[in-house]
Amino acid sequence: MKEPKMKKQHLKVSKTAQYKRYTRSKAGNFFFFLFLTLMGLFSVLPLIYCIMTSFKPLEELLIYPPKFFVQRPTILNYTALPSLLASLRVPLSRYVFNSVFVAFAGTILHIFAASAAAFVFSKSTLKFKNLMFAIVQLALLYNAYTLAIPQYLIFSKTNIIDTYWVYILPAIPSAMGCFLMKQYVDSSVPDAFLEAARIDGAGVFRIFFQIVMPLVKPAWLTLFLFSFRDMWSIIPGGTIFSEELKTLPQVMSSLTAGGIVRSGSAMAATVIMMIPPILVFWFTQSNVMETMSSSGIKE
Fold first, then answer.
1. Which of 2, 118, 142, 215 is positioned for an S-S bond with 181, CB 3.0–4.6 A?
2. Which domains does the chain have, with CATH numbers?
3. What was the pLDDT predicted at 216?
């Protein structure tokens, strides 16, 4: 009877020692969080500098070496934007409409395609689905520059150059979106729910829209953030020639053509362009954290 007690005591001591071994002290926690805080502040320095520069008057923009903080803030850089954009042949509202339409259309179609593909890869009995998903993972190795020439040839053969489709179609398929959704579906959609729905007579589309999509809401909200960010700032190269089809970032980038004299207005335009993605992130940040932790992706 003494030996089991001795073993239990030994296990308690070893667990306590292990717990103490992997637990930081208060000083360690302080320096750890101090390091994270400093790294976080360092990562937002470009954003802070952009905002500061947008309020700098012309004389402060011409100072060398340039100063980080603004000494005499002014809103002239913002009030000058309407006059700079007033000479455009196409009304500014047209560029705003193009950006909003392209961003939401591309994002919604991308979420639907990624979610549907992830549902098939995760919960279907399709043959060779593991091989096809391995091909999707292999596609993560290729960046946009590698695919630029093949995409242009496809756009040319399908006659979608200088149309809205040249914005939207490349955004619909995404290896990253499919991978992210598949990982989340694997961990958050129990097979028992799907079997119960099939027994009740639900079809594939009903199961997908009424069961799967509500369960993976954090994941597709995360996709909404990433896709909206990319689509909002999209500037097509060599595929859009009509002025009526150009987006707002493409017009705003023309403000920098004036050199350092217009750098304040260019920064003001950049700050305005950052507002929609920041608002989207503000409303989806909790879902982004949950999705990353559930999908095994470390930030």
1. 118
2. 52-292 (1.10.3720.10)
3. 86
